[in-house]
Every structure is written in structure tokens, then in C-alpha cells.
Known about the structure:
By secondary structure, the protein is of the alpha+beta class. It is about 35% helix and about 25% strand.
Amino acid sequence: MGWWGTTHSDRESFIVDAARERAELWREAAAERCMSVPSWLADTADAYLRELARTGRATPLPWHPGRFLIRLTDTTRSPWVAADVEVPGLISRPFGIYRGTTRGVGAPGSGTHTLAHLPTRRTIATLPLRKSCMALAAELAGLEIDWQETDPERVLVGAADQGKAQALIRLYEKLTRT
């Protein structure tokens, strides 16, 4: 330790930008609880995280646009032919979402989006809404499953939460049927 103290700290600081009207609302809310605005913001964020944990809702994953490989199956041929194809979509490793089904990429407005497991290039579920795929991915990410596994036969088999994952997938498919 030098004259200026330790170089390591267990604290972090954040700077928050807010419109004047919003900042005034924060000041009023903080004053009601006899707190400073930074303390009130921290307390509010902690309360939000406690509520997430209590309700069991998954924290949304960060998604970004990109291209990734998936395995598509041509069922018009006999026997069926599978091929790895690069598709545009959204990525939040180890998941990807693209517009379309296991047969191919859909046109804008096609009404189908597919959640894929990127390490295996396999489909997890095809749902009518992209946001449903995002929500399912967030739920699956929190389970005790080795999502980095590249062997499709070993991702779920034997995992501690295998049953939960399969039940979640069935539930999302059932709830989003049109």
C-alpha cells in the first residue's frame, strides 16, 4: 500500500445521464426516503434484481447482429439432405436467432424465427416471434447445461437441468402456437 491507498477496491462507480425532468423525479423519490439520489438509484436497482430472483424471470441476454452457421434440412429430397448454411441473424453466444425454419431462411414478415445452438449448429425451437426466441434463450442460459459442448448428442443428455430445458422448449412452443 502506498501513500494513496490500495489500488484494488470492491466498489465501482457509474455515471447516469438523465433528462432534467427525470432527474427531478429521482430527487423527489430519493428525498421521500431520506436518501441521496445515487443511494436511491442503487437501492432501486438492488430491489429490481431481488424481484427478478424472486419471480424467477431470466435476465435478458445481450444480442448483436451477425452471421452464423446452422444446419438446414432439405425435406423435399429423399433421403433428406442436411447442409450447414451461413445465415444472418442475432447472436448472443451460445445462441443465435434467424428468420426462418430448419428448412431455410424466411422472407421478412414470414412469421417464423428459429433459436439455434451455435456450437452444434442445431435448432432448439422455431417460434412465431423473435422476442419469444430471445426470452427462451435467456431462460435456457440460466440452466445447468454445458452450452459450449459441440457434440449435439451430449448437450442435454445427462445434464442436471435436462428435464427443465426440454419442458421450457415445449412450453414456449405450446404458448406461441398461432
